[in-house]
Amino acid sequence: MGITSIILIVVVAVIAIYLIGVFNQLVALKNRFQNAFAQIEVQLKRRYDLIPNLVETARAYMAHESSTLEAVIQARNQASGSLGQAAAHPGDAAAMKSLAAQEGALTSALSRFSMVMEAYPDLKASQNMMQLTEELTSTENKVAFARQAYNDQVTAYNTYRQSFPAVVFAGLLGHGTDAALLEFADSAQIQQAPKVSF
Amino acid sequence: MDFYRAQDEARRRTRWLAVLFTLSLISLLAMSNGLLYLLFRYAESTAPAAGSSYPPDNPFMYVLVSALIVVIVGLSSLFKSLSLRTGGKAVAEMLNARLLLTASNPAEQRLLNVVEEMAIASGMPVPPVYIMEEEAINAFAAGHSTANAVVGVTRGAIVKLNRDELQGVIAHEFSHILHGDMKLNMRLIGWLYGIMVLGIIGQYLVRAAAVSRRNNNNNAVLAMMGLGLLILGASGSFFGSLIKAAVSRQREYLADASAVQYTRNPKGLANALKRIAADTAAPWLHNPAASQISHALFSEGVHASLNDLFATHPPLEKRIRALDPQWQPGQELEPRPVQPEVKQSSAATPKMDAAAAVTMALARVGAPDETDIRRARNLLESLPASCVLAAKDPQGAAALVSAVLLYVNQIKLPGSSFGSLLVEIQRVGPSVTRLDAEQRLLLLNLCLPSLRQLSLRQYQQLRAVWEQIAKATQNLSGWLLYELTISHLDRYFELSRESTVSRSLAQMQSELSVFFSMLAERGSSNPADADKAFAAARNSSGFEKIERIDTSAMNLESFQQACSALRSLKPSEQKLLMAAITACIYSDNTVTVHEHEIMRAVCEILGCPLPADIH
After folding, report:
1. A36 and B453: CB-CB below 8 Å?
2. Edge-to-edge strands of the sheet including B150-154?
3. I need a labelling partner for B590 at 20 to 30 A (CA). Which of A13, A23, B70, B573 fits?
4. In chain A, which residue's Cα lies nearest the Cα of B431?
5. B542 torsion bin: left (phi>0), alpha (psi -120 to 50), beta (else)
């Protein structure tokens, strides 16, 4: 047990401790984006829960537009399904893509629905409908906000994972692939508004 | 017990902990050297000249081994303490607990409500609530200070306890937070890890020796080394549990007593303990990390084992009898007699003599009671539902805080500064304008947990806008609310760090001058009152040298620097600071709502838990 073996032991110990630190940081960053996805899930669920209400309220007025309404319900069910999948594997590329695709389909079904609704001014002006559409818009805003946060956290994880020295050990430590961002086709930007004050 | 005295006592116990730790280490070293000696005797007696690679008996070996042990224990403790530096969150993650942001069933909602009420009643930020998926009834509070505290509760506790019992348990945990026990418990986890680690290495070595099929002689010696380490590890655990018991067991009686003081409901806590006593089917926690924090739990969490030779908690029977002397095991649990809810009006606080207000405030720090809890509940119920709902998600919370800051500061900003938040701000704006000062402060506190869910980039963008708002005025309330929000969040997002160096009053005269000038000038309605207020501060002991500064030239940054300097004040002088602040705020012989709001905001910024009501 000479000096060299002692030095060797110490060096190995230091490397081990360092590796543990890298691993912990990877785990922490992964947890963060998973939590951020949970926030998206909360808002998307709210959105999906609002839609049946919306459709039922509209059905009373739009008796002949059943195809449009059914399209909305269909799209909503499919999106809800892919949300369940995605929530089980946040950051998984396939799941994120599928969720984005279904969400896109739902958004286009909804926009077709609102175009059709233009022809029914009574429906558009009804208290119920106005409240529901307002809540829906608000929820969509929250989804966008939550998605921003999620993408930020995913980027932070990926950047750390790809940087030195984490990149060397990431595969060994079980963090071999980048997490996937969640990209929705963005809705129109908020208009420039006058000054805000109270 | 006086809050400041309790903190002093907690610090004394920390020193006692250091002594015990050193003694343990010395005993470990003595034992390890003894074992090494025996090992050498064995190696000598069994090893022929050839085949054995062990060095001759050499004093240097003992020194080396001792040094190695000290290094291993030291590094492990350091490593563990570092991994706990994010505060209570680290302990929660160690136990695989899940953060509970929105309740998915009434039982979880009830837990969130109880914690919220307790925190607001105590005047501290609402700690994040974590759930452990365990059947046993148990709970913990962890963190270094009220600012990074978390509360954890088991699924069993949520499901098996009723509201009164749950409130008793939560009040017990808050007592740990308010009495400085929590910080001590965190230290214990770090330090004890080092002592226990030898045992873990020993276990590994013994297993390796048992599995290996190589040289029998080497094997045997390896096994003996492993065994030796196991013995060391066992003694490490022995010392560990001794330390835990010595330092934390007595505190449990005090925490129980304080919980009763807070809730004025001994039956609640007593019934919770009785339920635990009766819960023979699932008393222990399954998580292996539980033994590391067994001293921080509400009741015994880990079956008495090598790791916990000494009980970390007093016997359940004794605790129950302390609250309910007539109890016999096996009795039916009595429910609390239903008391009519007395609705307290949240009207303006009554006019009160200044000197009385000062003593009252000081006495009430860290000592909420059940009127505070009721008042907290009423205040929560008085908030408009739309605001409470908005506070639960990050975007809504961001909008609420922005709206509050805009309103309090009476500022106009172009809508583009807020980007996509604008619509949300305009939605909540009208409700925000109808809130009174106390509700505003409460709402800000409710928003903080959701704001923690922002990404760093989102927070920085928001922070820049809020800074713009606060910088545009010299409104004291506006500055205080801004400072309250960002000092909390900056620490969470690690944009600033709690300073580890504490300074004395004498070292921060310029910051004190800035702070009190601002407080006196902007907190008073006319110059004469301002002079009186400043004079009152200067009359307090320790503040004779502060100087009045012209506040019109003052900017937000210097005020913020003053606040962070005050936060780094030596604990032994914090009471003096509180006395001076209360003297300054209440100098004009009346207590107005405005002054009360300032008092509460200042206390929260300085991390001083002042309960909601001065009565």
Report:
1. yes
2. B98-100, B129-132, B150-154, B139-142
3. B573
4. A198
5. left
Which DSSP string do the residues of A68-133 spell out, in sequence order? HHHHHHHHHHHHHHHHHHHHHSTT-HHHHHHHHHHHHHHHHHHHHHHHHHTT-HHHHH-HHHHHHH
From the list A17, A142, A190, which residue is nearest B393 (CB)? A142
The upper half-sphere exposure of residue B188, i.e. CA atoms within 13 Å in the direction of its Cβ, equals 35
Indicate yes or no: CB of A197 within 8 angstroms of CB of B427: no
Residue B424 a catalytic site member: no
> Does a structural domain hold residue A128?
yes
> Which residues of chain B neighbour A20 with C-beta distances below 8 Å?
79
Cα distance between residue A91 and residue A93, in whole Å: 6
In angstroms, rounded to a whole number, what is the distance separating the alpha carbons of residues B73 and B94? 20
Where is mean pLDDT largest: B1-15, B244-258, B340-354? B244-258
Query: H-helix or E-strand containing B369?
Result: none
**Out of B424, B427, B453, whose CB is closest to A149?**
B453
B99 and chain A in contact, CB less than 8 A? yes
- Half-sphere exposure of residue B149: CA atoms within 13 angstroms, side-chain side: 28
Confidence class for position B352, pLDDT limits 50, 70, 90? low
What is the tens place of the pLDDT at every residue in B172-202? 999 998 888 888 888 888 888 888 777 767 6
For helices B3-46 and B574-585, angle between their N-to-C axes, nearest 10 degrees:
160
| Cα separation, A15 vs A17, whole angstroms | 5
Please give the residue range of the domain that contains residue A147: 15-169
Q: Which of B9, B134, B135, B173 is catalytic?
A: B173
- Decide if A152 and B411 are in contact by the 8 Å CB cutoff: no
Q: How far is CA B243 from CA B248, B269, B292, B295, in A?
A: 8, 27, 12, 10
B316 — pLDDT class (breaks 50, 70, 90):
confident
Residue A179 lies in a domain: no
Q: Is B420 on the interface with A (CB under 8 A)?
A: yes
- Cα A122 from chain centroid (whole Å): 35
Query: Which residues of chain A does B426 touch, with a Cβ-Cβ cutoff of 8 Å?
Result: 193, 196
Beta strand extents in B109-164 (DSSP E only): 129-132, 139-142, 150-154
pTM given for the model: 0.82
Q: Is residue A45 part of a domain?
A: yes
Read off the amino acid at residue A196: V
CA B354 from centroid of its chain's CA atoms:
32
Cα B599 to the center of its chain, rounded Å: 22
Q: What is the CATH number of the domain that holds A148?
A: 1.20.1440.20
Please report which helix (H) or strand (E) contains residue B125, including its range.
Answer: none
Q: What ipTM score was computed for the predicted complex, to two decimals?
A: 0.84
Question: Shortest CB distance from B420 goes to which of A43, A144, A195?
Answer: A144
B169 vs B212, which has greater pLDDT? B169
**CA A128 to mean position of chain CA atoms:** 28
Quote the tokens at residue B431: 């409700």
Contact A45, A83 (CB under 8 A): yes
Cβ B414–A195 below 8 Å, yes or no?
A: yes
Phi, psi of B517, rounded to the nearest 5 degrees: -60, -45
Q: Which residues of B touch A1 (CB under 8 A)?
A: 55
* Run of H or E residues at B100: strand B98-100
Looking at the DSSP bridge assignments, the partners of residue B98 are: B131
Q: Measure in Å the smallest separation between the Cα of A126 and chain B Cα atoms.
A: 20
Residue A177 domain flag? no
CA distance B610 to B603: 6
Cβ pair B75:A35 closer than 8 A:
no
Chain A residue with the nearest C-alpha to that of B459: A149
Q: Which tokens is B452 given?
A: 């923690």
Q: What is the rounded distance in angstroms from the CA atom of residue B290 to the CA atom of residue B91?
A: 10
Measured CA to CA, the distance from residue B426 to residue B400 in angstroms comes to 10
Q: Measured between CB atoms, which of A35, A144, A196 is closest to B413?
A: A196
